[in-house]
Every structure is written in C-alpha cells, then in structure tokens.
C-alpha cells in the first residue's frame, strides 16, 4: 500500500489537564463568591460608619485623614474632600497628643509576632477641637491602630463623641451643687445661732422662774408690815445682788420716792441689814429713769 492509504492516530492522556481546568474553574468561582461577600461586607461596614451618630476618622499611620463620616463632616463643617489627606491636627492642635500616644503603639507592632492579640489598648482622650467656623467643641476620642499583615502598613481608627453639652451640664450642676452647699452651710449656721439663742432664752426663763419661785416661797407666809422687808431680802438673795428696794412713787414728781423697804449687804464683811423706810431723792439716778420709762 502507498502512504496515502495509511491512517495515523495520535492519543494523549488529558485527564490531568481536565482536572486542573475543573479545579481552576472551581477556585475562580469561589474567588468571585468571596469577592462578592467582601464587597457586601465592605459596603455594609461603610454604611454603618457613615450613618453613625459619633464622629469616625480613618487615618494613616502618619496621622493623615483617609476618611471622615457624615457626623464628623456635619459637626466640624468640613466636606470630606477638604479633610482627605490633611493631618488630624487640622481639626485642632490638641489632637497632636492623641497622635503621640498612637505613635507609641505603632512602634510596638514591628516586633509583635502574634497579630491576633493586639499589644496595645485603645487610647481615650478628651480633646478640644475647632470647627471650620472657629467654634470650639469638646470631643471624647477612642482610637486604636488596626494591625495589618503587611508590616509596613497600618490603619488608625478614631471614634469621637461630642461631649460639649455634657461637660457644660456637669459644670452647671457643679455650680448649683456648690451654691446649694454654701446656702445650706449658711442656713445651718443660722440654725445653730437660733438654737443657741433659744437655749439661752430657755436658761434665762428657767432662772427667772426659779427666782420667782424662791421669792414666792420666802414671802408666802409673811403678811402685813413684815411683807415688804421679807420681799426685798428674798429678792436680793434670789437675784444675787447686794441691794434691793421696794418704793412707791410720790405724786407729781419723779425726783423723790417713798421707800417701803430696803435690803443691803456689806461687800467686805458680808453683813446684811434692812434699810429703814424713808423718802429717797432719786434725781439723776437709775430709779428716776425707770419711772420715766414706765
């Protein structure tokens, strides 16, 4: 036969190639599914951050602003485009202290071998920030560095809450508390003074009642001409005075009184004696003033 009458067949084993193609198709399908899930997760997280009432800043490890949510833009008066790429100190010089703390955390990361457990804690600081219009707001920041498997790339997330009104209320409450404490202190002092006055008045009244009882007890059994002498003697003893007298006013004059009975004691010898009844000249003396005031 001639060569044209011959049939040549070439056979190759494609099983392994087919398996590789099927495996690649499967991995591509899984990768597309994973990318879809990652995209959904990213959009979901972005929506959460965007709609949060608190301020959220995403920073580079150098402190440059990568993103700011709507709450941050609204409170500070900036558009996100105005903040992109700007240092965090754009919203206030005090934020430099926060960046200093975060820088200390970043220094730890290169030597940290177990990224599943962060070597640092979240930093918390209350800082005064300035809006675009120049208004000062007090913000409470919580910031942390998000570790990346790429050792030379890390992201800083800062969440801020406006506590300006809270601090103002605290200050107002503190002023009210201090004013109330001062008022209570004054009232307590006044109350103590009133109590002391009442105690003094009670003591005086008790002493007066005791004096009156002594006088009454000493004169209860005496009548007639002996009454007034007994009265002045017990009156002097009860009051603890050196002299006592009972007199009657003479009509149409305050310069002279008629002495009914008197009692006197010698300060040096302690001798006690009755004063005889007589007219007394009281002009310019305490007795005259008493009668005039009466």
| Rg result | 53 Å
| Annotation, overall tally of beta strands | 9
Instruction: Report helical residue fraction.
Output: 40-55%
- Please describe the biggest sheet, giving its number of strands, its sense, and whether it closes into a barrel: 5 strands, antiparallel
User: How would the global form be characterised?
Assistant: rod-shaped
Ends apart, CA distance between termini: 174 Å
Which strand order do you get reading across the main beta sheet?
A: 2-1-5-4-3
List segments where confidence is low: pLDDT < 50 over at least 5 consecutive residues: 108-120
Based on secondary structure, the structural category is alpha+beta
Order of helices and strands: HEEHHHEEEHHEEEEH
Work out the strand percent.
15-25%
Q: What number is the mean pLDDT?
A: 79
Number of helices: 7
Brief characterization of the structure:
The protein is of the alpha+beta class and 294 residues long. Helix content is 47%, strand content 21%.
What does this structure look like?
The model is unreliable at 108-120 (pLDDT under 50). This protein has helices spanning 15-51, 70-76, 80-83, 95-108, 164-219, 227-239, 286-293; strands spanning 55-60, 65-68, 123-130, 136-146, 155-162, 243-249, 256-265, 272-275, 278-281. Strands 2-1-5-4-3 form a five-stranded antiparallel sheet, sandwiched between helices. Strands 6, 7, 8 and 9 form a four-stranded antiparallel sheet that branches. Helix 5 (164-219) runs antiparallel to helix 6. With 294 residues, the chain is an alpha+beta fold. The relative contact order is 0.06.
């Amino acid at each position: 036969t001639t060569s044209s009458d011959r049939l040549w067949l070439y056979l190759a084993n494609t099983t392994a190639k087919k398996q590789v193609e099927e495996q690649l198709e499967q991995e591509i399908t899984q990768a597309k599914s994973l990318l879809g899930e990652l995209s959904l997760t990213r959009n979901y997280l972005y929506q959460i951050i965007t709609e949060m009432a608190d301020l959220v800043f995403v920073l580079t490890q150098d402190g440059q602003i990568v993103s700011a949510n709507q709450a941050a833009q609204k409170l500070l008066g900036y558009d996100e485009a105005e903040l992109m790429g700007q240092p965090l100190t754009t919203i206030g010089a005090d934020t430099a202290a926060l960046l200093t703390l975060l820088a200390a955390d970043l220094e730890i990361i290169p030597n940290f071998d177990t990224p599943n457990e962060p070597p640092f804690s979240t930093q918390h600081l209350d800082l005064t920030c300035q809006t675009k219009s120049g208004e000062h707001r007090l913000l409470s920041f919580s910031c942390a560095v998000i570790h990346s498997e790429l050792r030379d790339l890390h992201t800083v997330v800062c969440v801020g809450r406006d506590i300006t009104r809270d601090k103002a209320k605290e200050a107002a409450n503190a002023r009210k508390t201090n004013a109330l404490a001062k008022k209570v202190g004054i009232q307590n002092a006044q109350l103590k003074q009133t109590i002391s006055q009442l105690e003094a008045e009670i003591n005086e009244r008790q002493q007066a009642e005791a004096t009156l009882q002594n006088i009454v007890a000493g004169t209860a059994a005496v009548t007639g001409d002996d009454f007034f002498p007994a009265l002045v003697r017990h009156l002097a003893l009860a009051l603890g005075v050196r002299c006592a007298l009972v007199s009657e006013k003479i009509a149409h004059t305050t310069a002279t009184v008629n002495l009914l009975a008197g009692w006197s004691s010698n300060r040096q010898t302690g001798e006690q004696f009755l004063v005889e009844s007589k007219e007394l000249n009281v002009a310019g003396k305490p007795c005259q003033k008493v009668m005039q005031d009466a």
